[in-house]
Specification:
The chain is of the alpha+beta class. It is built from eleven helices and nine strands. A hairpin with a 2-residue loop joins β6 and β7.
Length: 375
């Protein structure tokens, strides 16, 4: 939390004002809707799936054995490595976060989370490739990473849904993979795991014990809380907002190089670009001057491009949110990510500054009325 507070303190006055407005609106919305307290669930209570988990579980039931929702990091490690300390570090992370020792079971036709409450060790496979000729080692690394980690599916019922692999290439040269299924982690979780792994390993190799601080709740507590809160009048009110917001939304037709396949191939790529320092500085200054976030400026720019390409002045795009609206969730590993739709009216030939105001209003409205995309 200290890091977060420092970042807030370094924001401009307008950005701090915008953040305060967001927090004020969140608290007001929570109070108006009778948002229950997020606390530790009663012992022995069945733990439902969160709405997001339920969607991924359903996809897995429809098309089992697919690696589509694998999250895999591949790290090349140079220098001395204490394998015992590394293994124990992963064990500590599994004990700390219930999500990493969770699988999905079915009872009376309904899925629920089964969380192992005993001492669970992390699954680490170790491959020693030092016996291979040097020119063959990298090829074997590519095969192991691709076939055994990236493309090998997780079994949501049997688990584990968190696994690691250490490939030994030399006494001081290793490749480490860290894999987790998306149903129990998201991008923010990966950053948390990396940070906590560094703390644990650093403390253990130094002869000490890692200090990470207690977690007030676990992901299962969040799932119970979410199911209790998002129902009845609260859910209907928020769904009503989205039904009105997205009524009659046009289909955005963009030119493509070829017809899209009927059956998704899940093949994709990443296209990267670099903004010059002067351009980035200008964008940040524009955001500060208009009291909006950097994301809002970029979202507005994307909408301008899509409008020009499609000829539409009514543009809706999807964007992910952290889904961690409460401070208790900031240090938890779990699947919180959500998707919201931002629909913006570009009619009337607005200036870019005017468009920024429209994007800001739409974005804040989406945050105020966020519901799981599955709903």
């Amino acid at each position: 939390m200290a890091e977060f507070e420092t970042r807030v303190a370094n924001l401009s006055d307008k950005r701090q004002a915008l953040l305060a407005l967001l927090e004020q609106r969140k608290k007001a919305a929570a109070a108006a809707q009778g948002e229950p307290r997020l606390g530790v669930r009663p012992a022995g209570q069945p733990v439902p799936l969160s709405f997001g988990q339920e969607a991924l579980w359903f996809v897995d039931q429809l098309d089992p054995g697919q690696p589509t929702y694998n999250i895999v990091q591949v790290l090349r490690l140079r220098g001395p490595l204490d394998v015992v300390a590394l293994r124990r570090s992963f064990d500590l992370l599994v004990q700390r976060h219930e999500a990493l020792r969770t699988v999905f079971a079915v009872r009376q036709g309904r899925p629920f989370q089964h969380i192992d409450q005993g001492f669970v060790t992390a699954t680490m496979v170790r491959d020693d490739l030092r016996h291979l000729p040097e020119e063959q080692r990298e090829a074997e690394v590519q095969r192991l990473v691709g076939e055994e980690e990236v493309r090998r599916p997780f079994d949501l019922a049997a688990g584990p849904l968190f696994r690691t692999r250490l490939i030994v290439l030399g006494d001081e040269h290793h490749v480490l993979t860290i894999g987790v299924h998306h149903s129990v982690a998201d991008g923010w979780s990966v950053g948390l795991l990396n940070g906590e792994l560094s703390v644990c390993y650093g403390a253990l190799v130094g002869g000490g014990e890692p200090v990470l601080g207690e977690l007030p709740v676990q992901f299962g507590d969040f799932a119970v809380w979410q199911r209790d809160w998002l129902r009845g009048e609260v859910l209907e009110r928020r769904l009503g907002y989205w039904e009105g917001c997205l009524a009659g939304v046009p289909v955005l037709e963009l030119p493509s190089d070829r017809p899209r396949p009927v059956v998704p191939s899940y093949g994709g790529d990443v296209v990267e670009g670099v903004l010059s320092g002067s351009v980035l500085a200008g964008v940040r200054e524009l955001a500060r001057s208009q009291g909006v976030s950097l994301f809002m400026v970029l979202a507005a720019a994307v909408k301008v491009v899509l409008s020009r390409y499609s000829g539409l002045d009514d543009v809706a795009v999807g964007t992910t949110t952290l889904g961690r609206s409460r401070p208790e969730l900031e240090r938890l590993v779990g699947y919180f990510t959500n998707l919201v739709v931002l629909r913006t009216d570009l009619s009337g030939d607005p200036s870019f500054v005017e468009l920024l105001g429209r994007v800001r209003d739409v974005t804040l409205g989406a945050y105020d009325n966020e519901v799981p995309f599955e709903k």
